[in-house]
Design goal:
This protein has 388 residues and is of the alpha/beta class. The chain contains 10 helices and 16 strands. The protein binds pyridoxal-5'-phosphate.
């Protein structure tokens, strides 16, 4: 793929403030530094493309209170997955009517809590879930999550969430019978869907259901398009405004006029605003004949880099020796677990001069790092987070 023509951006949005901060400070442990102003710029960039669609930030991508507080100030809504996330966004000043309880797997007590806190919008993909919502949040608005086939995303969300197309109308009807408001549909195209055109198949599938539901007399108001908005991890991506606008065009062509569109970016809003300061702990060869060096970092699969699972997300790494000759390395974390290998099938190229004690920067990793970090596996502390 040509990294320049056809794509608006080949460099990360604005990591410089974060990387300057990292260069000027010492860190005892791996530390995620997140630039809240960069989150705000990205919010505006996405909003500009999304038109009348409203952003509901997917809190799980990075729940740092400074991010939530800034987004509240910008008028963002929030997609919360748990009681804890609802409490967090409310404590930062979000209005309950800007919060959706978007997890399709909720405890009855948590639904009741959300209802009492004023949340009126809930996701569901099963009869039993609708019954729980009707019992604990009577009269609530619900949207039915649809399983998406054939995701082209780098981090697909599998079949865990959503129901098959042939169940959607039954569930909308069940919601109505239970005294709930069958408000709309939701889906998730898969996280890190690098190109807007990759939404086409998913939108075709969901639009067919949407029109069938309208035909069956359901006055659907809400289309929740989930996340999927990409971050720059080394492969060219479209400018966020152009990407969002292209998705909205694809939606308009298939759905026509939709009263309310909700987008739930997580990664696309916060990933590029953060970088992790980390350190090389050991560089070794398993034998003198080994072609690859092994490079062990003080951060790994269990301390924030969970999305290296299956080598799906390939982070960009900056070292103080960039510019020196490079060679292939297997990259691994520090824990005593053999799954804690980040990149081996596709080795990563790093300077041949890299040595223990070198400080490195892992770029564009403001999303899904602090939340995936284990608490004290092997005695390694969880990822520190500093908002600047
Ligand atoms: C995780 C999640 C998102 C965010 O997805 P990204 O690809 O990070 O933007 C949005 N909606 C729901 C329901 C999610 O579970």
């Amino acid at each position: 793929m040509n990294a320049v023509t056809g794509f608006g951006r080949i460099a990360p949005l604005a990591p410089s403030r974060v990387e300057s901060f990292i260069a000027e400070h010492e860190f005892a442990h791996p530390t995620l530094v997140i630039d809240v102003d960069a989150v705000e710029r990205q919010f505006h960039a996405l909003s500009a493309g999304l038109g009348h669609a409203h952003i509901h930030y997917a809190v799980k991508a990075n729940p740092h209170p400074a991010i939530i507080e800034r987004l509240v100030g910008l008028g963002s809504g929030f997609d919360a997955a748990s009681r804890g996330e609802i409490e967090l966004v409310l404590s930062q000043g979000a209005h309950a009517d800007h919060v959706s309880f978007g997890n399709t797997i909720k405890k009855a007590a948590d639904i009741r809590f959300a209802h009492q806190a004023g949340v009126t919008l809930f996701a569901a993909d099963a009869e039993e879930e609708l019954a729980k919502i009707a019992d604990n949040a009577p009269g609530a608005r619900v949207y039915i999550r649809v399983i998406v086939d054939n995701s082209e995303a780098d981090w697909p969300l599998s079949r865990k969430f959503g129901c098959a197309s042939d169940k959607v109308l039954d569930l909308l009807g069940r919601a109505r019978d239970l005294g709930l408001v069958p408000h709309g549909l939701s889906f998730h195209v898969g996280s890190q869907t690098r190109e807007a055109r990759m939404w086409t198949g998913t939108l075709d599938q969901v639009a067919a259901i949407w029109h069938r539901a309208q035909g069956a007399g359901f006055d659907l108001q809400l289309l929740n398009i989930g996340g999927g908005f990409p971050a720059f991890y080394g492969e060219a991506i479209e400018h966020p405004t152009a990407y969002a606008a292209a998705v909205i065009d694809l939606i308009s062509a298939r759905f026509g006029e939709v009263p309310q569109i909700m987008a739930e970016p997580g990664r696309g809003l916060v990933a590029e605003a953060g970088a992790i300061a980390a350190e090389v702990v050991l560089v070794s060869r398993k034998s003198d004949a080994d072609l690859h060096r092994w490079v062990y970092l003080d951060i790994g699969r269990f301390s924030g880099l969970a999305e290296t699972e299956g080598e799906a997300i390939r982070y960009q790494i900056a070292t103080p020796r960039d510019g020196d000759e490079t060679g292939a390395c297997v990259l691994a974390g520090p824990s005593c677990d053999s799954a804690d290998v980040l990149y081996e099938k596709r080795p990563i190229h790093l300077p041949v001069t890299l040595a223990a004690g070198d400080r490195i920067v892992i770029r564009n990793c403001g999303a899904y790092t602090s939340t995936y970090s284990s608490v004290c596996f092997n005695g390694f502390p969880p990822l520190d987070v500093i908002a600047i």
